[in-house]
Design goal:
five-stranded mixed β-sheet; about 400 residues; globular; alpha/beta
Length: about 400
């Protein structure tokens, strides 16, 4: 059949070999995936380990990244989502139905709480709040289906009593989901707390943070060890049309090799900054789970046996400093940029009113405005000097 030049160009054969060995895996961009014949079309199933049927299900690029994230976290199966919050929403929509009870820590990631409250209003899910450093405050009823964990918790950085909370949930046959963004699969193994029978069921990770490392990619993951759970999540993932860009996946994949080095560097820098912050008169309290003076230090020590921690440290200013003064302090910072997120090369700062965020008793926290420092890749002494000069504005 003789073809016109335009048609011949579209159907031109690929003469160059399509696979070579390179440091980085090849990048596949695909919505449509071509089947060799009708046998290939019909002799496949969405539960296949690598179902190449349409771009939303996966390509070699996205499956490779998923496999590596699962490996880092100690799991077996991984699904990717456009953001960490999207991954959280996948878990909530997959496992919660009308009348179900879900338990969340008082220091849970704010958008997760907001999403669950929205489900409570619209679909009759019952949201219960517990104190993450008091396992006795987790008192599930027979309707409880899901326990959300976060280690360490958002903003105030309490490390939860993970071991006892997971034990209690398992004894009640309640599914456990951990927001593992802080630990990144590096500080501890969420699927093996030194006991093969003690692990979370689902780990959610905002790959936006440490895996990306550049402050330029949005992505999330959901990792499991149990195939039945993975299939249930995968079905919801497909029905909701959750998908990511192959280009974004390749960017995150490229950054994974340096993630351990970056994580350790930012952890060390945060600990260095922490020791200096504790000497400053302006702060009523410095918050970091690796600090021996922290209320949750023992839980961190018991779980994070690698003694690693994310590059986050929060301070509570003395009550004499009002929001106007704290805003002035933040505006005077030069190296720390005002912005959400963390895990990238640039250090960030954000300020919070705790009374607007916490619902349970938080008597272990001093009164005052909280400022969270997210440590980047700058020299720690330069960051200390930046905070020092901004404090003079007070």
């Amino acid at each position: 059949m003789k073809l016109t030049p335009q048609t011949a160009l579209i159907h031109a054969p690929r003469k160059a070999p399509q696979f070579i060995n390179t440091v980085q895996a090849p990048l596949f961009r695909a919505s449509t995936i071509i089947f060799e014949n009708t046998d290939a079309l019909f002799n496949r199933h969405w539960t296949d380990d690598y179902d190449y049927s349409y771009g939303t299900h996966g390509t070699p690029t996205t499956f490779t990244l998923g496999d590596h994230i699962a490996q880092i976290e100690g799991g077996k199966y991984c699904l990717l989502a456009p953001s960490g919050l999207s991954a959280i929403n996948l878990v909530n929509s997959c496992f919660l139905s009308h009348g179900d009870e879900v338990w969340v820590a008082d220091n849970i990631y704010g958008p997760n709480m907001e999403h669950l409250r929205n489900l409570e209003t619209r679909y009759g899910i019952d949201v219960k709040v517990y104190n993450p450093i008091d396992a006795d405050s987790f008192q599930p009823s027979e309707k409880a289906k899901l326990l959300w964990l976060e280690a360490a918790g958002s903003v105030t950085l309490e490390f939860p009593d993970l071991i006892n909370l997971v034990k209690k949930a398992k004894s009640k046959h309640i599914l456990t989901a951990l927001d593992n963004t802080w630990g990144a699969g590096l500080a501890f193994n969420a699927f093996d707390f030194s006991d093969e029978h003690l692990s979370v069921d689902v780990s959610v990770h905002a790959l936006t943070k440490y895996p990306s490392g550049g402050g330029d990619i949005l992505m999330g993951s959901v990792v499991t060890r149990v195939k039945a759970l993975h299939h249930k999540l995968f079905r919801t993932h497909a029905i909701q049309g959750i998908a990511i860009s192959g280009d974004d996946a390749a960017q995150v994949q490229r950054s994974l090799a340096s993630m351990q080095i970056r994580y350790q560097h930012q952890s060390n820098s945060a600990l260095h900054v922490l020791q200096w912050l504790k000497t400053q008169e302006a702060f009523a309290q410095v918050l970091h789970p690796a600090d021996p003076d922290n209320i949750s230090h023992q839980y961190w020590k018991d779980t994070c046996q690698t003694k690693q921690s994310a590059g986050l440290v929060s301070v509570i200013f003395k009550a004499e400093y009002d929001m106007t003064a704290i805003r002035k302090f933040c505006d005077h910072l030069k190296l720390f940029k005002i912005g959400f997120s963390w895990g990238g090369p640039v250090s960030l700062v954000m300020l919070y009113k705790l009374d607007d965020m916490r619902h349970l008793d938080h008597s272990h926290l001093q009164k005052g405005v909280l400022v969270r420092f997210c440590i980047g890749l700058e020299d720690a002494d330069d960051l200390i000097a930046d905070i020092q000069q901004a404090l003079k504005a007070l």
